[in-house]
């Protein structure tokens, strides 16, 4: 049974080839976070609904995780803005970044720059 589960995980993960290892930070970014902004925008404008879902899920997931680590004021901002606008803002930041910029860097910078005191 374990071999079947492992095979299923490996099979399901195969299309998620955007896994990037960053030895200088000892990090491993899986899924859309490891895509470049060029790939993000290509996916957004493309026709593969599965990849579009992966992109939206990753963006919303990373922002959701940030709400568990930041102060209440940050969480209030995220709740008030809402998922759709956060997703759109993240894509817009990718449009403005150099095409080789990784999505995770864009999202983390946005999260870092979201100041509840403003």
TrEMBL record:
GO terms for molecular function: S-methyl-5-thioadenosine phosphorylase activity. It comes from the Bacteria. The keyword Signal applies. Residues 1-18 form the signal peptide. The keyword Signal applies. Its EC number is 2.4.2.28. Keywords: Glycosyltransferase, Signal, Transferase. This is 5'-methylthioadenosine phosphorylase. It comes from Sagittula stellata (strain ATCC 700073 / DSM 11524 / E-37).
